[in-house]
From TrEMBL:
<feature type="compositionally biased region" description="Basic and acidic residues">
    <location>
        <begin position="94"/>
        <end position="112"/>
    </location>
</feature>
<dbReference type="InterPro" id="IPR037802">
    <property type="entry name" value="SGF29"/>
</dbReference>
<keyword id="KW-0805">Transcription regulation</keyword>
<dbReference type="GO" id="GO:0000124">
    <property type="term" value="C:SAGA complex"/>
</dbReference>
<feature type="coiled-coil region">
    <location>
        <begin position="6"/>
        <end position="36"/>
    </location>
</feature>
<feature type="region of interest" description="Disordered">
    <location>
        <begin position="85"/>
        <end position="117"/>
    </location>
</feature>
<dbReference type="Pfam" id="PF07039">
    <property type="entry name" value="SGF29_Tudor"/>
</dbReference>
<dbReference type="GO" id="GO:0009651">
    <property type="term" value="P:response to salt stress"/>
</dbReference>
<feature type="region of interest" description="Disordered">
    <location>
        <begin position="162"/>
        <end position="181"/>
    </location>
</feature>
<keyword id="KW-0156">Chromatin regulator</keyword>
<dbReference type="GO" id="GO:0005634">
    <property type="term" value="C:nucleus"/>
</dbReference>
<keyword id="KW-0175">Coiled coil</keyword>
<dbReference type="InterPro" id="IPR010750">
    <property type="entry name" value="SGF29_tudor-like_dom"/>
</dbReference>
<dbReference type="GO" id="GO:0006325">
    <property type="term" value="P:chromatin organization"/>
</dbReference>
<feature type="domain" description="SGF29 C-terminal">
    <location>
        <begin position="124"/>
        <end position="268"/>
    </location>
</feature>
<keyword id="KW-0804">Transcription</keyword>
<protein>
    <recommendedName>
        <fullName>SGF29 C-terminal domain-containing protein</fullName>
    </recommendedName>
</protein>
Length: 268
């Protein structure tokens, strides 16, 4: 793992710490508002009182912070998944199997997995993606390297922690045509930014490499941001790798909600 990758992970960890501190502050404010409304519920009926509006604003802020935390956590988990040795999982299994007798002595609900608040929020976030279009890394039928395409999430299995997705683009005649279905781990999924939630939309500066939907297709390719955007709703101006025309790379406009962070270790 290169130093830039480690530095990026450390920065994301710092951002997570900041988000969690902000969430704690917002929750304290929400609790204060709850106590106020419980002690003086008649206050909301007074002219000029904005208690309910403030409470709504706090809940909205808490939701946005939580979604930002989930997004960054997802990116960090993807980075870690890319660098953890393949043998790590097998070693973990052997250690668990070695404690089989200890497991047999456990009783009742001790076998029920306990989810931390962050893990529970993550599970809820994954489940909320049902019906959404996302970027997904899928294997090609001809055995070539994986490719990133737009798919629709049809189900998230909390037990197997796998997404069931549908590639709605019909396949080639040689592949039998029709829509293709896949079961994918979370590390093969990247949610697109939501037009309705600009507060959590990432900003990619000029020179940043990203993964973006190539205009007129449902496939995503590596590209470089050419210039800064004035507004969060503006399109990105990108240059796609290997998109050379007449000796130069053409600049193409791509909607901001079809551009995501380039996954670590991406090869094209």
């Amino acid at each position: 793992m290169s130093s830039p990758d480690i530095a990026e992970m450390l920065e994301k960890s710092k951002e997570l710490d900041r988000l969690r501190k902000e969430q704690e502050e917002v929750l304290l404010e929400i609790n204060k508002m709850h106590k106020k409304l419980q002690s003086t519920p008649e206050a909301v009926e007074k002219p000029g009182d904005n208690s309910l509006s403030k409470l709504k604003m706090l809940y909205t802020q808490a939701k946005e912070l939580s979604e930002s935390e989930m997004s960054i956590s997802n990116q960090l988990l993807g980075q870690l998944d890319a660098v953890i040795p393949a043998g790590g999982a097998g070693q973990q299994r052997r250690r668990i199997e070695g404690n089989e007798q200890k497991k047999k002595r456990m009783k009742g609900d001790s076998d029920i997995p306990r989810l931390s608040p962050s893990m529970r929020n993550q599970q809820e976030f994954f489940a909320s993606l049902k019906g959404e279009q996302v970027a997904a890394r899928v294997a090609q039928e001809d055995g070539e390297k994986d490719e990133w395409v737009i798919v629709k999430v049809t189900h998230y299995d909390k037990e197997s922690k796998e997404f069931e997705v549908l590639d709605e683009e019909p396949g080639d005649d040689e592949e039998g045509g029709g829509q293709r279905k896949y079961k994918l781990p979370w590390s093969h999924i990247i949610p697109f930014p939501k037009i309705s939630d600009l507060a959590t939309t990432p900003e990619f500066p000029p020179g940043k490499q990203v993964l973006a939907v190539y205009p007129g297709t449902t496939a995503l390719y590596k590209a470089t941001v050419v210039q800064a955007r004035k507004r969060k709703t503006d399109d990105y101006t990108l240059e796609f790798d290997d998109d050379e025309e007449d000796g130069s790379l053409p600049q193409r406009l791509v909607p901001f909600n079809q551009v995501v962070a380039l996954p670590d270790g991406h090869r094209q």
